[in-house]
Structure formats: structure tokens, C-alpha cells
Amino acid sequence: MLRRYLINLLLFLLLTACHKNPAKNNVITTIELSRLGSWQDFGATISIDSSLVYQYWGDYKGIKQGFFKGRVSRSFWDTLNSKLERVKFKTYIPLEDHVLCQDCTGYDLIIYWNNHKRRFGRINLFDIKPDSILTFMRWVDRSYKNIALKQIKDSIKFEVYTHEPPKPRINSIKFPPPEKSNK
User: With 80 as the cut, is the pLDDT of residue 138 above it?
Assistant: First the structure.
């Protein structure tokens, strides 16, 4: 009886150990991140999509401001998705950066999923809680160092700002007239 119990237990453990985990259900289709450079840096732009294509514009291994392409692993893509899910990017209320900074790094991030997109802009000044969008932006910004990229001749079109965000035209800024005093 004990022998039969041990055989059944061993068979059960063997079958459950051989079971493959199902593929992760990643809802994100593409992310784009742009690091808007500070005075010592011209910035960089990264695009990663669900087909594991990694596109990069910036400095890479001694080449100044080039276009590069590579591939990421499925585990990298799964990690990227899980990091964004932990942040709850669909409902995340971003902090407002009301800081005027002459020499600091800014980020522009666009996340695409199921015919939706969400844009986040941040200035890299302060340490924010570990699961924040800024921490995710920093992680993606450093990722090009660990990806095998090859320079390409064609340019890559990005939707994120690749330099500074556009400023309003001077003729589109309107100020209300001063109030008339009744004296």
C-alpha cells in the first residue's frame, strides 16, 4: 500500500514537473522611449515591439548618432511587460514635473497596447519609488548596452520626441486682457 502511494506520488510529481508554463499574455505591442539629452548628451531613442525588434538611435560603441537595429529575447520582452504591469501603466497617475531645468535629462515614453496608447513625460531629477514610471524609463534607457545592435543605413521613424518637446509658437500664446477698473 505504501509502495503504491509512493509510485502515484512520484508519477504525479513527474507529470507536473514536465508541464510547460503557458506563454505570458503580454498586452503591450510596442514601447518607444526617448531620452532628451542634457548639455553633455545628445539623447537617444529606443523602440521595442512585440516581434522582439529593438531599434535605437544615439551613440553606440563609439559611433556618434547612428541608427541601429537588433533583437531582444522573449524573456526580456516578458520582463518589460511585467514591469509595466506592476506600475499599472493604464491607470497610473503621473507626477507633474514643474521644474525648470537647464541641464537635466528628460524622458518621453509612449506605450501602445490593443489600439490604445499612453504617453508619459518625466524629468530625471529625483529618486522616485521603485515601481515608478521613471524607474522603468531608466531601465529601458540602459538596455541598449546589453543588446547586440547593428548599424543600419535607413533612418527610423519614432513618434516620441527625439529632441526637446515642441514649444508653442509665439503667435499661439494668448494672454487675457487686463481687467478694467471702475474708478
Answer: yes
* Residue 179 domain-assigned (yes or no): no
Cα–Cα distance between 69 and 147 in angstroms, integer? 9
pLDDT of residue 37: 67
Q: Is residue 68 part of a domain?
A: yes
Distance (Å, whole) CA 108 – CA 33: 6
Read off the pLDDT of each residue in 74-102 and give the average, rounded to a whole number.
80
- CATH, residue 129: 3.30.1560
Query: Is 91 domain-assigned?
Result: yes
Which one-letter amino acid corresponds to residue 12?
A: F
Number of domains in the chain: 1
User: Which DSSP string do the residues of 113-143 spell out, in sequence order?
Assistant: ETTEEEEEEEEE-S---TTSHHHHHHHHHHG
C-beta separation of 139 from 54 below 8 A: no
* Interior angle at CA 87, CA 81 and CA 89, nearest 5: 75
